[in-house]
Amino acid sequence: MKERVFFEAGTRLSLVTGAGEKAREWTILGLVGAGSTTICYTAESGGVRGRLKVFDPADGFGFPEQAMKEYQKAYERLRRLKAENEDAALLNNYMPPSQLLFRFDEEGKMRGLFVWTPEDKAGSRFDTYIQAVREDPETMPEHKLFNILGVLSTLADFLRVLQDLGYTH
User: Fold this and answer.
1) Strand residues in 16-169 grouped as ranges (E)
2) How many CB atoms lie within 10 A of CB 46?
3) Burial of 55 by CB count in 10 Å (0-12 exposed, 13-18 middle, 19+ buried)?
4) Cα 102–Cα 70–Cα 11 angle in degrees, nearest 5
């Protein structure tokens, strides 16, 4: 099995939105984490920071080209759905904007699939908030409960939109 390769902080990548497109530079700032099929980094391009997710399975054999194409089709379908369907536009309230990026070799063959999600909101993650509540449940408990219920209500709305659009049963 081939060893999984991680980008070091400071690594620069030239990525494109499609074959034949002008490449943009991305700088890896640090590792966020790795899952079974992706590695996620904090990155920057053009002065904008965000998350750059690299499809790279833990088996180290690279993301199969067919799987990249299937992911690309699903991404494009969701993008069109959000743009063309008034009800689907509600998804924009729950899903951050993202962009597919690619790396191609000299022959034009796709050699990497990336998803860029710019930082769009300042704030903390929900798990961080829950940990803070657990550490100090006595301070402003009504306010904390209100915030938690608000997040759960938003999540329920998101799931309803997905169900109305036929993505869940």
Assistant:
1) 24-34, 38-45, 48-55, 99-104, 110-118
2) 8
3) middle
4) 25
